[in-house]
Design goal:
Helix content of chain A: 40-55%
Shape of chain A: globular
Radius of gyration of chain A: 24 Å
Strand content of chain A: 5-15%
Largest interface: A-B, 102 and 102 residues
Order of helices and strands of chain A: EEEEHEHHEHHEHEEHEEHEHHEHEHHHHH
Strand order of the largest sheet of chain A: 5-6-7-8-10-12-13-14
Structural class of chain A: alpha/beta
Oligomer: homotetramer
Bound molecules: cobalt (II) ion
Number of strands of chain A: 14
Chain lengths: ~425, ~425, ~425, ~425
């Protein structure tokens, strides 16, 4: 029985590029096969519970704009919210969703009550998931909104907060496992500092390293086979967050012996905030062997905070999915829309329209990327550019069979005077524009 | 015999805070003892040859503004430059200088000729150093200005450029060793990319890792006891540089097994470009155990490129030296002014005035930092803030003696509900303002 | 009768630079005379009601951290808030405060009820002001928090919102006049756009121009003698705000014939967000003749949003007050702390400490600026730099008595080949460092 | 007779979207009619002489990478450069070019010699233009590269520099008029400041206002009918430039009585540097009535300086041309590529490929924009959004027929309580994605 929230809106169907129906897909045809795989299996779309169902539309200078019948602090509200959520998942035909504990149940008076409520909602979810076939891409714990976490969760100066956070994550992993979640995500929104004047960075990094090791040990102990993912973000809410970007997370994982256990969930908006492009962060994760999943939501380049908008720039998305495909595509990861409506987008239809547009843009981007790969449009010139490294002597240098003196001696002996060759950037950019 | 370039300017002396003589130190008294060490031994000032003697005053929209008698491409010019340089070092009373190969000798027609010229200048330097007592803080190779390096040095798609760069660094380390340099620096101005479309990041990182290993092996082989330093910078000249910031360099060193061999030379301006404060980068290096040296020149916060200005904001510098002192102070490192005059500062006197102001500001900053340490002004509140971690149970959590389930069980059993405590940021900022 | 909120804290006194009492002034001695005026009369400090009393400590990723007994939606809460506010004003010894309607009274169910509540609080304020001698620097209307303003107030696509906003401002000006406010401020937090796709910029600018003309006409009609001030801010909350920066506001005022009627309230944080330094915005306002007042709160240079921190960098503040003094000092304006505690600064004492530190830093900055003016430390070199413009021919060029051809003819006739002179930036920066 | 520089490359032809020929147009069909006008007449493409023929490929950390046979300081070199330039214009089939005096002739030993050389090149250009039909979109003077301008041209503290700049501009306008240039551009690369410590901003603005008035007077006197254009840029090379952005230029023009005489040449890259989107600057110019022309070259969003890259993001360009078309399209203005090759793009073919890709992307953008206009895809929802303002009472408010009190009285009388409506941003973004 429908909640009626979306009125008489019908499930969104693929109608092809010429459709002008705002509630149809023009590019996302779930069953279309690209590079030997269905689009649905490539893209593995997920809806984010928090922005789409829990966010009231506030910003730092204004309060709630959205009026949702499920806003309220009771379990009835929480269940209504779940009902509407699964209706949206089904209308869109997305295979996955993601949630924080705090998104789906009202906070209880005690830890125990909060946990009990989460379990009760998990029961409710299980029924919904069975009926709709929608799956859980990842679960996560909100360790940043409650004032108890204001000075950090794992990195708090108070060990009781560390313990409280640990207990919270344990329970959220339990629930994620029960719901067959394919990943578990940690975003350290408060794991960082506001001022170094009151912060012992070395100690806090050790706390965070310990925390993550506890999580990984627990995962193995209970047989949770999903991937543990860290979501890097440089700042906001804190002035500085320890999981700054992909490269920083990699160093952190190495320091605490976790580089084989943990991967990254990369968000376009967070890449931008860290001064990188999205494809940079994806390429870095590929190079370092820690690519996991993506949050496909964009930031406004002119705003210095996380605007979490639905993606829409197809050329940028093509370059992002090109990196995803170069890395072999998603394994347990997927394309999560960690995106919120603009706070002026008040209508139920806006919720659907936003996802439809985002999914369509992703589908176009992925298809363009796949075609570039099939055509070797970029890889053929790339191979040619590095071809010199295939020589015996070059291989020997790279593998460590030559010392600095040996190389220097060869430069002198052969009178090596390298001549630069064109990098052809404009040509390659034009090539990409053939595909997008 | 003087070149006469600085006219009748006398050596710069310490005259105390009330002096209005622009060519006197008001705060830098080399022999003043702070925390048991002379200021000169704390600060270990170095003048950068390139900006101060080789830079012609150009910018992307304008050419040379400085008219120096030593500008020219002959060895006579190079020696005149050296003579004036050592006059400036002596007038200032700085203990150190730093240089790139390209700063001190004209490029030759071949590698061999360039090397021979460098050797000849090194002879000249040896004489000057013996006479003046000025020492070499570090040497380095310019692997970024010549067009052969336009697509990278170690990370070039052409292995011949890798080889050429290797030969260059070998020779520069030889010269640095001969001149008793206390460090050798690598700044990877072209080790990065302009576009991912023509770049294989994983391969280029491997090239860079191999290159650095070659350098470290060579250092040990020839018994060079100075420190190998990487200078992080996020971008400029390339769109993205691999040595982005301290945390990124740390991950890179771990990946290539070099975290015990290589340290970082941190520049304030580069910290800013990477979205960090200078003290953040210093604290990070301390936390990760790779702090080496500093380039104490500031960037304009409103300009998105490296403005390399002389430092002058004492409160910022106090926080920077506070981190340096927390890490135990400089070992082989020092305070290099990688700073250039504004291109409108045409006069010989401007060269002196800029260094005097920078050195004075550093001295004020360091003395303020030292006093805060003596007074435990920040460390006492810090210890109190983390005091909870001294309990037996907290220590057990941090050391790994408790599992996630054990911690969760304790939260449940004890009904832990942490209460937040004030972070007192404004109080601590006011405390700092007592010292600066 | 005290509310007891601040316990037994005594009024903050001036104790001189050597005091280590966190609740004493070290530099702000209200009666100290500088450039012929008392410090209190120079600085004209005001406390901002909103951040200090109404802000709950939330951020985009977390809720309330502050627990204040006056948080609540009743008039009793509002009066308790006022009582504590005036206690803080008196403990600090500040001469002024500022408020929005929404800060001081709970929103009513209707416009009329909201207005009645504001009037009732104004009565309460009148009593408090009479008793304490604290005055109103400026009043303002909150036209950005309520969802009715989500798409703009004056610039809303719905003319009813324009009307509602007009009625609100009318009432707030009435109250400001009654309370003898010395200025009335308009900050257009929603006067801008999220996307040009749904925005008619030309029309919205016309709406805003009309609105401001209505306000100015009304001011004159009722005999309100305070200054009307616009507070520029480039963005946040909206993607783009029409009152971007001082220069943009100037153009807007010219377009709508208001450049003699309206001045600017310049906030350091907003200057930074617009890519300017604070002193730039102040100098611009002086050059354009529209300087009014300041919001003396800083932004973090590494954060892309308005962090509204208490000021603490004395060198920066000296440069800011130097511009204020160059412009003749405040007339009706003053130094408002549009600053909020960090959300981790939970204690009542933090409220006091933050203001004390800010006021002290302002006092140091102003005194340094005053001394530079007395010594002509910067103005003498400046006059020398432009001295060439005192020649007869130069004056004739500038006043328009020479045509382009005449000037060109003189260049040819005299063979003019200008020789550049040093701009001496480092020297001048060192001079400033003598004072701060 | 061909210089042979471009080998046997044939003129670039339109081959349609399926072409994979890198030297064919896929979208730019000059004769295609859109909105009643040929594409060539809509887009009015121009090649920039400086980047394409004069720039050696240097950056702040590296020297020349390009090796062009015309690099050199003789008039023979200058003429060879011109010959190759007109070959490129013809191969591309662009209707226009633009130049600075300094791009086209070597600087002479005196003003007179420089002028004579420019005249000689202008003769050469006249012949080329007659033969090829290529026209001059605009001329301009380089008042920023020579060291005499290091502290400003019109805003220099030395009135002799003002005079020298005035003479230079006079001559460049004469030449532009002779070559039938359709506009004359002023970009104030040195009209700004490095530090306020040595700058009198009010005086310098007056100097700049006088300078521009001299130019406008001269234009009328000699009957030059082209448009005078200012090119806004916020900074770089100077820390702050007075022509910061479109809104700032508007205020400046109003202050000096020039808002009807001067328009703006808007560059995408400069918009970005000022914290705006390109379409924002275009919409602002339309709203303020000063739109003139565009420099269609993009900046890298992750680089804080002017990267001047060829445009390639079609969705962004569609939004830009949408604003151009909304403003009625170009009058005397056009689409100038103020874009430079990446310095690694060494080959002659790269010069062609870059322009071909840029022109194609512009054509796609313009065609998408035109189609959106034809379909009223955005304008119909926009009209609906503001429809409330068509009511009698709303019009009366906007026209000034209602006072603040009257409006307030109506709010009270009618009990106006506005209800917000969805802004539909995601819907509109999806609509745009149908076209790009
Ligand atoms: Co985000
Ligand atoms: Co995310
Ligand atoms: Co630098
Ligand atoms: Co450096
Ligand atoms: Co603010
Ligand atoms: Co403010
Ligand atoms: Co540009
Ligand atoms: Co331009």
């Amino acid at each position: 029985m429908s909640t009626g929230y979306f009125g008489d809106i019908k499930p969104v169907r693929y109608e092809g590029p010429d459709s002008t129906n705002p509630l149809a897909y023009r590019h996302y045809n779930a069953d279309e096969v690209v590079l030997g795989k269905r689009l649905e299996d490539h893209l593995r779309f997920a809806v984010a519970y928090w922005h789409t169902f829990a966010w009231p539309g506030g910003d730092p200078f204004g309060g709630q704009t959205f009026e949702r019948p499920w806003f309220g602090e009771t379990m009835e509200h929480a269940k209504l919210k779940a009902d509407v959520a699964f209706e949206l998942f089904s209308l869109l035909g997305v295979p996955y969703y993601c949630f924080h504990d705090a998104d789906v149940r009202p906070e209880g008076a005690t830890f125990a009550e909060s946990a009990k409520r989460l379990d009760e909602i998990a029961d409710h979810f299980e029924g919904k998931m069975a009926k709709t076939g929608v799956k859980l891409l990842w679960g996560t714990a909100n360790l940043f909104s409650n004032r108890r976490f204001m000075s950090g969760a794992a990195t708090n100066p108070d060990p009781d907060v560390f313990a409280y956070a640990a207990a919270t994550v344990k329970h959220c992993i339990d629930v994620t496992k029960r719901l067959k979640g394919e990943n578990y995500v940690l975003w350290g929104g408060r794991e960082g500092y506001e001022t170094l004047l009151n912060t012992d960075m070395g100690r806090e990094l050790d706390q965070l390293g310990r925390f993550l090791n506890l999580v990984v040990d627990y995962k193995h102990k209970i047989g949770f086979t999903g991937t543990i993912l860290i979501e890097p973000k440089p700042q906001e809410p804190t002035k500085h967050q320890y999981d700054y970007d992909v490269a920083t997370v990699y160093g952190f994982l190495r320091k605490y012996g976790l580089e084989k256990e943990v991967k990254v969930n990369i968000e376009q908006g967070h890449a931008i905030l860290a001064g990188h492009s999205f494809e940079h962060e994806l390429a870095t994760a590929n190079a370092l062997g820690i690519f996991g999943s993506i949050d496909m939501n964009r930031n406004d380049y002119q705003s210095g905070w996380d605007t979490d908008q639905f993606p829409n720039n197809v050329p940028e998305m093509a370059l992002a999915y090109y990196q995803v495909l170069l890395g072999g595509g998603f394994k347990t990861g997927g394309t999560n829309f960690d995106a919120k409506l603009r706070r002026q987008s008040l209508d139920p239809e806006d919720l659907l329209v936003a996802h439809v547009g985002g999914m369509d843009a992703c589908a176009r981007g992925l298809k363009a990327a796949a075609k570039m790969i099939e055509d070797k449009a970029l890889s053929a010139p790339l191979d040619a550019r590095y071809a010199g490294w295939n020589s015996t002597e070059a291989k020997a240098m790279l593998s460590g069979e030559r010392s600095l003196e040996q190389i220097a001696a060869r430069v002198a002996a052969d009178g090596i005077e390298p001549q630069p060759k064109s990098g052809r950037q404009e040509y390659l950019e034009n090539v990409v524009n053939r595909y997008v």
